[in-house]
Amino acid sequence: MLAVLRNTIVLGLSFALLLGATTAQAQIVPGRPGAGVGVGSGQTEERVRTLEARVGQLEANLYQLNQRLVNLEQAQRPPQYPQYPTQPTEQACLIMDTLVSRAFMGKGRTRIEAEANARQSCAGSVSSTYCNAAAKCSDEREQTVRQGVICVLKDSLVSRTYKGDGKSFIEAEYNARKSCNDSVSSTYCKAEIRCEAY
After folding, report:
1. In this predicted model, what pLDDT tens digit does every residue of 91-124 receive, in sequence order?
2. φ, ψ (nearest 5 deg) of residue 125
3. Alpha-carbon distances of 113 from 30, 117, 139, rounded to whole Å
4. Which one of 4, 74, 175, 184 is most buried, counting C-beta atoms within 10 A?
C-alpha cells in the first residue's frame, strides 16, 4: 500500500518537474512568436532562476517524502531476529530414579541448570548411581501462552487419582507424581499421566 502511494507521489512530482522545466525552456527559446516581445534578458534570467529554485525545492520535497515513506515501510516490517520474552524464563526438568521410580524435579534459567538441579535433588534422596535416567525437560520459550497445566495420574495399587498443577507440563507432572508418591509407594506411580493446559 505504501509502495503504491510512494510510486504515485514520485510519478506526480516527476511530472510536475518535467512540466516546469518544459515551461521554463519554452519561455526562453528565441524565435517563437511573442517570446521576446517586451521582455528583456534580465527578466528572462530572473524567471529562469526562479524556476530553477522551484525545481530545486520540489526535488528536496520529493527526497524528504521518499525518505519518510521508506522509514514508514521499515517500521512496519517484522523484525529479522526472534523475539524472546523480556522477562526471564524458567526451565524445568524431571527425572525418575531407577531404584524405586520416585520423581525429582529441578528448575533453572537454562535446561542444563534445571537438569543438574533435578539430579542433585535425586542424589540427595537416593544414591547418585540411581539418578542417571534420561531427564524430561520443558522450555517455556517453546510453550504457547497459557495460565497453567493440570496433570492427573492413577496409581496401579488401588486406582486412586492424583492431580498436580503447575506453570509448565513438567511441573504439573512432577506435582501429580509427588502427590502419588506421598500417598503410596512410588513403584505404583509409574502409570501413564494425562496433562492439559488451561
Report:
1. 889 999 998 889 999 999 888 999 999 999 999 9
2. -105, -40
3. 87, 6, 12
4. 175
Residue for cell digits 521508506?
70
**17-31, 33-47, 132-146, 147-161 — which is least confidently predicted?**
17-31
* C-alpha dihedral, 196 to 185 to 187 to 173, nearest 10°: 20
Question: In sequence order, what DSSP letters do the residues of 90-156 get, joined into one string?
Answer: -EEEEEE-TTT--EEEEEESSHHHHHHHHHHHHHTTS-GGG--SPPEEE-TTTSPP-S-EEEEEE-T
Instruction: Classify burial at 17, counting beta carbons within 10 Å of its beta carbon; exposed 0-12, middle 13-18, buried 19 or more.
Output: middle
What pLDDT, in 10s, does the model give residues 176-189? 999 999 999 888 88
Beta bridge partners of 163: 152
CA separation for the pair 107, 91 (Å, rounded): 6
Q: Which of 169, 195, 166, 170 is nearest to 118 (CA)?
A: 170
Which triple of cell numbers denotes residue 157? Answer: 495399587
pTM of the model: 0.51
